[in-house]
Amino acid sequence: QVQLVESGGGLAQAGGSLRLSCAASGRTFNLGFVAWFRQAPGKEREFVSVIEWRGTGTAYADSVKGQFTMSKDTAKQMVYLQMNNLKPEDTAVYYCAATTAGGTLRLAGLYDYWGQGTRVTVSS
User: Fold this and answer.
1) Which of 51, 64, 83, 114 is the most buried (most CB within 10 A)?
2) Residue 92's closest CA among 119, 110, 71?
């Protein structure tokens, strides 16, 4: 089992920045990928970004490319999402997710483990 705990959400003004953190614990040596998803009110959960747990590869949704940066500190078992130039449409609950498998990494169904989410609200 893997446990994921997100933190760092809150209220930001448009154009501002927030840094989300995801602390992983448990059997993390089995992990292949860790991702961020988000779910805005009334919308489906959507992929934001993903990072290789044992490598350096990253991928982003087109909607956040150049705006968000995902990173990790494997020794600390931490994953981060630096969000810059925030927009009201970035308002959502952000979830950290992890999988031991590979596949279509943008699909939420691939991920075995999920955090409880952290809320981000961006005001205009």
Assistant:
1) 83
2) 119
Which residue type is seen at 23? A
Judge contact between 90 and 78, C-beta under 8 A: no
- Token readout for 7 is 């933190």
- What separation in angstroms does the CA of 59 have from each of 15, 46, 105, 107? 23, 14, 9, 13
pLDDT of the residue at 106: 92
Residues 105 and 69: beta-carbon distance below 8 Å: no
Mean pLDDT of the 51-78 span: 96
| Neighbouring residues of 76: CB distance < 8 A, sequence distance ≥ 6 | none
Q: Please give the Cα distance from 15 to 101 (Å, whole number).
A: 36
Paired residues of 86 in beta bridges: none
Structure tokens that stand for 112 in this block: 């075995």
Could you report the per-residue pLDDT of 67-109, keeping only the tens digit for each?
Answer: 999 999 999 999 999 999 999 999 999 999 999 988 889 999 9
Rounded to an integer, the average pLDDT of 106-120 is: 95
The whole-angstrom separation of Cα 43 and Cα 51 is 24
